[in-house]
Design a protein that fits this description.
- Strand 7 and strand 8 form a beta hairpin.
- A 4-stranded mixed beta sheet has the order 4-1-7-8, with no helix packed on it.
- By secondary structure, the protein is mainly beta.
- The protein folds into 2 domains: 30 residues, no CATH class; 105 residues, Type VI secretion system, lipoprotein SciN (Immunoglobulin-like, Sandwich), CATH 2.60.40.
């Protein structure tokens, strides 16, 4: 009769081998993400234009150019803008592309959803370089939340 330790070792080897061969059944069940709001900021000391393109499964679902002001001091957030939730309301594989008027650009691909929605921040840094940050939206899916109406 095989020992418990031997059985666990062979199960681990089988799982590792299955993952390497692309036969991991859990990978098929990981949810595709929904895209939450995309926030844009300008931390450079000069104003910039930032073009945003969002593709879902290869099809463009959003494109717009934003004028992001500055407060004149590098490292602080002078210009802020938000792409609302509409383009990312469906689950899918998303590619977000950001490009400044000077040609500096960055892309990010979102293929797995950790929670109700993924949030993205695109930041123009000193010298016009574009940086991207993403993560699970810790407030739930803000896209499903009702919009407060002024009284």
């Amino acid at each position: 009769m095989p020992s418990r330790r031997g059985l666990l070792a062979s199960a681990g080897a089988l799982a590792a081998g299955t993952g390497c061969m692309g036969l991991n059944p859990l990978a098929e069940r990981e949810p595709l993400p929904r895209l939450g709001p995309v926030r844009l900021s300008n931390a450079d000391d000069v104003p910039h234009e930032l073009s945003v393109r969002i593709r879902r499964a290869g099809e463009q679902v959003y494109a717009e150019t934003f004028e992001l002001e500055t407060d004149g001091e590098e490292g602080t957030f002078g210009g802020l803008a938000t792409v609302e939730c509409g383009p990312g309301s469906e689950r899918g594989r998303y590619t977000l592309s950001f490009e400044t008027e000077t040609g500096e650009s960055a892309d990010i691909e979102l293929e797995r959803g950790d929670g109700p929605a993924l949030s993205v921040l695109a930041e123009i840094r000193g010298g016009g370089e574009v940086g991207i940050f993403s993560g699970a939206n810790s407030y739930g899916n803000m896209c499903d939340a009702p919009t407060p109406t002024p009284e």
